[in-house]
Design a protein that fits this description.
Layout: E1 4-5, H1 16-26, H2 38-58, E2 65-68, H3 71-85, E3 92-96, H4 101-112, E4 116-120, H5 130-136, E5 141-145, H6 159-168, E6 172-176, E7 195-199, E8 210-214, H7 229-232, H8 240-255, H9 257-278, E9 282-285, E10 295-300, H10 305-314, E11 317-318, H11 334-338, H12 343-346, E12 349-353, H13 360-379, H14 382-394
Parallel strand pairs: 1-11, 3-4, 3-5, 5-6, 6-7
Antiparallel strand pairs: 2-8, 7-8, 9-10, 10-12
Helix pairs in contact: 1-8, 2-8, 3-4, 9-13, 10-13
The structure holds pyridoxal-5'-phosphate.
C-alpha cells in the first residue's frame, strides 16, 4: 500500500534535488575536508558554501554556524555549553513547559548538577506567558531558552519580544527553531536571537545533520573532544554529503517559502473545517491562525488517540499523537497538559502535519477515513455511551 504521509513534523521526505546535490560527495568526492590535497579542498569548499547558504537564511555570519548531528545535539551543546561557561556568573536558566525533550531533559539534567531552572507556563493557545517570564528573571539568570514553534500544536512564540527582554537584561537567548527553519522567516538580528538550533530532516534535507548558530561573543564549553573541526567547537570529520544536502535544502525552502506556507495553510484550514463540520465533540488545540502552517492538533473526545492512529495506519495513513519522541509512552503529552487539557481529552488527540508533497485528494481521503474511524471507535466507547445516555436524560 502507498504511504499517505501526514507526519511532516516528525520528519520529511528527502527532496530529489537535494539528493542529486549530495550524490557526488557520497561517491567520487570523498575527501576529508581537513586534508590539504585537492580532493580534500573540494569537500572543504562545498562545506563552506553550504554554511554560507544557511547563514544567509537566518541573517547571520557563516562563522557563527556550527554543524552538528541534528537538532538534539545543537540544543544539548548550547544549553550545557552556556551553563558550564557562565556558571560563575549565575546558575539560573529560564525555559518553558512545552519545550522539546532535547531542551527539557537537558534542563532537568542541569538541575541535578546544581543549576536552577524556571519552567514558564503557557496560555490555552500555547503561548509563553511573557509576564511570568519577566518576573522569573533574576541577577543569576544566564540563559533563556524558548522554542520558536512548538512541534505538537504549532504555536509560534513571541520570539522577537522574548529577544528584546533578554537583551535588556543581558541574558543569552537560545531558541530551538527546528520546526521553524525552512518554513518561517527568521532574522537573528531583528529578533535578538543569540543562539538557534535547526535540523535538515525537518525541511526535506537528510537526517543526521543539523546546525547551531551562536552569536559572535557568546561563549560555550564544547562537549565533543577530538580534532579541530568547526573552529575547535565540535570535533569529528565533517559529514560533507549531509552538509551539502542541508545547504541545498535550506536554499530551496526559502525560495519556495511563501508558496509553501500558503499551500500548507490552505490544506490545513480545509482539513480543520471539514472535521469541525463532520465530527462532533472535538477540540482544536493550539492557535492555527497564528501557528505553523500545515500543522493541526485535534482532540476527539471519548476515544484514545492511539486507537485512531492504529486504524489510520491500517489505511496507509501516517500520523502521530504529538511527538515521535513520546510515542510508546502512556503519559499524555506534556504540551497538551500545559495548555490545560484534562488527561482524558489530551489522550484523544492526534497531530496531522501536512507537507509540501501532500495533495488535496490525500486530505480528502484522510477526512473520510477519520469520520469512519472516530464513529466506529466511539460506538465501542463506554465513555461515549454514558455521555449519550446522560444527554438523553437531559432532554
Ligand atoms: C525534531 C525536533 C528536534 C530534534 O531534532 P533532531 O534532528 O531529530 O535531533 C528538536 N526540537 C524540535 C522542536 C523538533 O521538532
Amino acid at each position: 500500500m502507498k504511504n499517505i504521509y501526514f507526519d511532516n513534523s516528525a520528519t520529511t521526505k528527502l527532496d530529489e534535488e537535494v539528493l542529486k546535490e549530495m550524490m557526488p560527495y557520497l561517491t567520487e568526492d570523498y575527501g576529508n575536508a581537513s586534508s590539504i590535497y585537492r580532493l580534500g579542498r573540494e569537500s572543504r569548499k562545498a562545506i563552506e558554501e553550504a554554511r554560507e547558504k544557511i547563514a544567509k537564511a537566518i541573517n547571520c555570519e557563516p562563522n557563527e554556524i556550527y554543524f552538528t548531528s541534528g537538532g538534539s545535539e545543537a540544543d544539548n551543546t548550547i544549553i550545557r555549553g552556556v551553563a558550564y561557561q557562565y556558571k560563575n556568573k549565575g546558575n539560573h536558566i529560564i525555559t518553558s513547559q512545552i519545550e522539546h525533550p532535547a531542551v527539557l531533559e537537558t534542563c532537568k539534567q542541569l538541575e541535578k548538577e546544581g543549576f536552577e531552572v524556571s519552567y514558564i507556563g503557557v496560555d490555552e493557545k500555547g503561548r509563553v506567558k511573557l509576564e511570568e517570564l519577566q518576573n522569573a528573571i533574576k541577577p543569576e539568570t544566564i540563559l533563556i531558552t524558548i522554542m520558536f514553534t512548538n512541534n505538537e500544536i504549532g504555536t509560534i512564540q513571541p520570539i522577537a519580544e522574548i529577544g528584546k527582554i533578554a537583551k535588556e537584561h543581558q541574558i543569552i537567548f537560545h531558541t530551538d527553531s527546528v520546526q521553524a527553519v525552512g518554513t518561517l522567516d527568521i532574522d537573528v538580528e531583528k529578533m535578538n536571537i543569540d543562539s538557534l538550533s535547526m535540523s535538515a530532516h525537518k525541511f526535506y534535507g537528510p537526517k543526521g545533520i543539523g546546525a547551531l548558530y551562536v552569536r559572535k561573543g557568546v561563549l560555550f564549553q564544547k562537549f565533543m573532544n577530538g580534532g579541530h573541526q568547526e573552529r575547535n567547537r565540535r570535533a569529528g570529520t565533517e559529514n560533507t554529503a549531509a552538509i551539502v544536502g542541508m545547504g541545498k535544502a535550506i536554499e530551496l525552502a526559502y525560495e519556495q517559502a511563501e508558496d509553501h506556507r500558503n499551500k500548507l495553510s490552505k490544506l490545513r484550514d480545509y482539513y480543520i473545517s471539514q472535521i469541525q463540520e463532520k465530527i462532533p465533540y472535538i477540540k482544536i488545540n493550539g492557535d492555527p491562525e497564528n501557528g505553523l502552517p500545515g500543522l493541526s492538533n485535534i482532540s476527539f473526545r471519548f476515544i484514545e488517540g492511539e486507537g485512531i492512529l492504529l486504524n489510520l495506519d491500517l489505511k496507509g495513513i501516517c500520523a502521530s499523537s504529538g511527538s515521535a519522541c513520546t510515542s510508546g509512552s502512556l503519559d499524555p503529552s506534556h504540551v497538551l497538559l500545559a495548555i490545560g487539557l484534562p488527561h482524558e481529552i489530551a489522550h484523544g488527540s492526534i497531530r496531522i502535519s501536512i507537507g509540501k508533497y501532500n495533495t488535496k485528494e490525500e486530505v480528502d481521503y484522510l477526512i473520510e477515513q477519520l469520520v469512519e474511524i472516530v464513529g466506529r471507535l466511539r460506538a465501542m466507547s463506554p465513555l461515549y455511551e454514558e455521555f449519550v445516555k446522560k444527554d438523553i436524560k437531559i432532554f
